[in-house]
Amino acid sequence: MNQETFDYVIIGAGSAGCVLANRLSVESRYSVLLLEAGGSERHPFVSAPAGFLKTFANPQFNWCFKTAASPSTGNREILFPRGRVLGGSSSINGHLYVRGQRQDYDSWAQAGNLGWSYDDVLPYFRKSENRAGGDPAFRGVGGPAHVSDIHERHPLCEAFVDGVEALGVPRNPDYNGATQEGVAYYQRTIRNGRRHGAAHAYLRPAMRRANLQVASNACVQRLEIIEGRCTGVHYRRYGRLLFAAARRCVILSAGAIGSPQLLQVSGIGPGAVLQNIGVPLVHDLPGVGENFRDHYAVRVAHRVTKPVTLNERARGLRLGWEIGKWLFSGRGLLAFSPAHVAVFLRSEAHLETPDLQFVFTPASYSDGVTGKLQPFPGMTAGVWQMRPESRGYVRATSANPDVPPIIQPNYLDSSDDQRAVVSGLRWCRRFLQTAPLVPYRGDETVPGIEVATNDALLDYARARGATVYHAMGTCRMGSDTYAVVDRELRLHGIDNLRVVDASVMPAMPSANTNAATLMIAEKGADMILSAR
Ligand SMILES: Cc1cc2nc3c(=O)[nH]c(=O)nc-3n(C[C@H](O)[C@H](O)[C@H](O)COP(=O)(O)OP(=O)(O)OC[C@H]3O[C@@H](n4cnc5c(N)ncnc54)[C@H](O)[C@@H]3O)c2cc1C
Asked: What distance in angstroms lies between residue 519's CA and the mean position of ligand 1's atoms?
């Protein structure tokens, strides 16, 4: 067997894996191998922020999973993108930089994960980012991940913000600062009009180091466990089966789908799941793949009566002009992320903090879901419940890691999530009915004004909602029976193995999950380097 030995072997060059590759290889005495199933992120669809629409169903960059059919969402199989490329999901994501609320991380610590309170994790959020001009108590300058403001305030967005403010929602100068609540333009991981994902921010600058080896197109098949210790990983590259041994530690950063699947096919997980796929039990860990949570978005869209929306700018000669503009100045249509304006709001006055997150875009999509822009002017407001109660799972269906696992999200299973989503749809309508939008507003296209009762709105949400791509929790941190890693991100019961990615989050942050994943990996790198 072809074998090489490294101090650290990292599986997955996603948001977390890129951070780890950079931070661990800073120490030149350690050799680091980073294995990634996908290929290079150097492509205009990845680099142009609006290229998002070209990657989220494209197998060149994406695993293109589908969820299992679920009765709570009309038994549909929902497209479930995950990055399969250097940078992982940060190379195909929507760029929005949202950290969440103090209470999110305090709840992680209160659940027994000492060291993960907001005050503990804030230094790692600050360390990871480069954002000039923010309150230094919260924001970081000089970190690898560049966080920028929108380059162009669209008149429809300005009217939307004015309207939301007129409803009593305050403008928030920094929703990643002291408080999240309010209306604001989204902050983005975009630099000079180009995507600034984890590959650009962390991996590329480290790739010139002699002690870091990056193997793309290297698909890990299973972990090697000998007498309770992970000694290395088997992977396939260009048709050859190879083995990489790890002297100090194997770090699993294959994301909320890949990490539990790789553990299961390696014999670590719930006994019944392993029995089903015919994998001998190496270590019974019932929580592997459980506790899956994700954000489920629903949308309200309108026609717009004037040709001012992004729909028209994305066609014909105007598109050619926009491409040229982006190539020369990094501005214009192609530099937009898919959402422009954020609202963070409490669906009910008695709630302590916001539970709903909204996105507004001066564009509309066929079928009301992100994808193909409509051939007429349109605008869209979307919403999701930030801390969903509904939980699902990820379970391998075969011992062969190339066979996709079952992803069962159980969206809208919980009555609390159902209530929140109906309330969110009503708020979307309120936002879109405000006076500043009157000069632009045409008919509601989805769900349509005939969808008026709570039951009808819920039915619409079940039939037409979709993931907003924030899977987490499937290798949950904790110390109970269903916990997979401890608070130092070490796998319970197996030595020499850590999980560091979005799967370790014990509960959903009130946020899109990339910023928190970068933070987890920054903190994880410190833990690994200090475990001498
Ligand atoms: C379409 C989309 C839009 C999103 N939009 C936003 C947004 O706007 N803002 C935000 O904050 N978050 C967003 N997210 C979520 C965010 O990007 C993720 O939470 C974050 O990137 C997760 O990081 P990770 O390191 O856990 O996993 P990933 O970044 O997914 O990395 C896992 C890596 O492991 C690799 N891998 C998996 N299995 C194997 C294997 N067997 N062998 C080798 N390699 C393997 C994968 O190919 C991948 O590169 C979005 C995600 C998607 C998919």
From this structure: 14
255 Cα: distance to centroid of ligand 1 (angstroms) = 6
Number of C-beta neighbours around residue 368 at 10 A = 22
Cβ count within 10 A of residue 481: 9
Task: Please tell me if the CB atom of residue 55 comes closer than 6 angstroms to any atom of ligand 1.
Answer: no
Same domain assignment for residues 434 and 326: yes
331 with 437, same domain? Answer: yes
Q: How far is the CA of 275 from the centre of ligand 1 (A)?
A: 28
Phi, psi values for residue 29, rounded to 5°: -75, -10
Distances (CA, A) of 62 to 40, 55, 246, 271: 12, 7, 28, 30
Q: Which atom of ligand 1 is nearest to the CA of 88?
A: 49
User: Is 16 a pocket residue for ligand 1 (Cβ < 6 Å)?
Assistant: yes
Domain check: are 247 and 301 in the same one? no
Q: Ligand 1: which residue has its CA nearest to atom 12?
A: 514
User: Distance, CA 369 to ligand 1 centroid (Å)?
Assistant: 20
Q: Determine the pLDDT at residue 155.
A: 96
Instruction: Please list the active-site residues.
Output: 470
One domain for residues 113 and 221: yes
CATH number at residue 343: 3.30.410.40
Ligand 1 atom with least separation from CA of 262? 41
Q: What is the pLDDT of residue 366?
A: 84
| Contact 94 CB / ligand 1 (< 6 Å) | yes
373 shares a domain with 238: no
Is the alpha carbon torsion for 313, 318, 324, 328 positive or negative?
negative
Pocket test for ligand 1, best of 187, 238, 514 (most atoms within 8 A of CB): 514
* 241 beta partners: 236
pLDDT of residue 3: 79
Asked whether residue 76 falls in the same domain as residue 90, the answer is yes
Q: What is the CATH number of the domain that holds 505?
A: 3.50.50.60
Provide the pLDDT confidence category of residue 287 given band limits of 50, 70 and 90. Answer: very high
440 and 527 both lie in a single domain: no
Question: Cα–Cα distances in Å, from 517 out to 125, 147, 509?
Answer: 10, 15, 10
Which structural domain range is residue 302 located in? Answer: 151-185+296-387+412-464
Q: What is the pLDDT of residues 212-252, one digit of tens each?
A: 999 999 999 999 999 999 999 999 999 999 999 999 999 99
Place of tokens 């005050």: 119
Chain centre distance of CA 266: 25
Same domain, 239 and 217: yes
Say yes or no to pLDDT of 1 above 60: no
